[in-house]
Amino acid sequence: MQSSDLKKLNIAVVGAGYGGAAAAKALSLLGATVTVYEQASRIREVGAGIGLRPSTMDRFRRWGIADAIRKVSSPSDYFEILTATGERIMVEAWPEIDAFGETTHLIHRGDFIEALLSVLPAGMVRLGHKLERIEDRGDGAVLTCANGTTVEADLVVGADGIKSVVREQLFSAAGPVFSGEHAYRAVIDIDDASGMVVDDNLRMYIGRGTKVYLLPLRHRGQVSFDITALCPDGTWAPSVTKDDLLRTVEGFDERIVDITRGLDMDTVNCRAVYDIDPVRTWHSGSVVLLGDAAHSMLHHQGQGANSAILDAGALADALQEADSVPEALALYQATRKPVTDELQRISRQGWSEDEVDEVFPGQKPASQRPAQRAEV
């Protein structure tokens, strides 16, 4: 689209998470008028650290915000996978380093979203706007929020997460899919990591039915300590005790057991793990899905946040390359959906048949079954 046409676009982004904030930055750089509508009264990210891949850092560089991310992250050279007792299975450099001239950066989720929001103009993000209804009018859309606000936009970007209202009302009524897993996440001081963190590289320890991740956040003197374990309880925020966690790491390196024993349970984020089945269509002529709203995936490949950022970049690119908004949305989906479909698929391959059968005798959690047909 011509620069003059892009500057006339009024864009509403639903959701101020990673994808929504990144989309707001990328689209505002095109000259469009962008407003972000977020249901929360304040932005707060809890949980763990994540790795920002070289392709993601390259996007930040192109948007002029890489320095803001580097200030609150640590560069990492490689990741390592080990047995439960610490024998090395593999060690590998992060992919894409040569292609983009960047390395992976490890960052706390809270620092990441704060950094993204800090580079948006004041007033662009409007908190306390919970979307209740979206009406697609073909050449535009109308949002109705719970506080009574009505918003008209030429383009709506649904970046409202795994429980997306935009997706449910316009593209797929299918709900999130339980993976058969729990994730227990805490951020601890390096001094409490039993000497297991000596550099800036991610390590994953694999035992039967359990994986433990140690992700250094050395720029803040901390470590993201994550336990992922098979569990049949699909309660979204399950109640878990210290003894439950200790049972999941039984047989692991005694230092991991010690870290678990020392956790303050009030600081541990406990969640059942969900994703969604692939959605056939992400867009209409004036509404488009992005990030978890389009392709929420399990965390085994560490690609959820990265995918949302790359979505935002691809959407901005498509608007520049295509002749109209509908053509741009079709180009965006054609560019990104094959990639995220594959990431969703391989992210579900987290456990062996024997491990799944042990926890789910005679059955499988939905995410472990053969791939569903994409929703119409």
TrEMBL record:
GO molecular function list: monooxygenase activity
Pfam families cross-referenced by the UniProt entry: FAD_binding_3
Residue ranges, annotated region (Disordered): 347-376
Residues covered by the FAD-binding domain: 10-343
InterPro entries assigned to the protein according to its UniProt record, in alphabetical order: FAD-bd, FAD-dep_Monooxygenase_BioMet, FAD/NAD-bd_sf
Cofactor(s) named in the record: FAD
SUPFAM superfamilies in alphabetical order: FAD/NAD(P)-binding domain
Keywords attached to this entry: FAD, Flavoprotein, Monooxygenase, Oxidoreductase
Protein name per its UniProtKB record: FAD-dependent monooxygenase
Organism: Actinomadura violacea
Lineage: Bacteria, Bacillati, Actinomycetota, Actinomycetes, Streptosporangiales
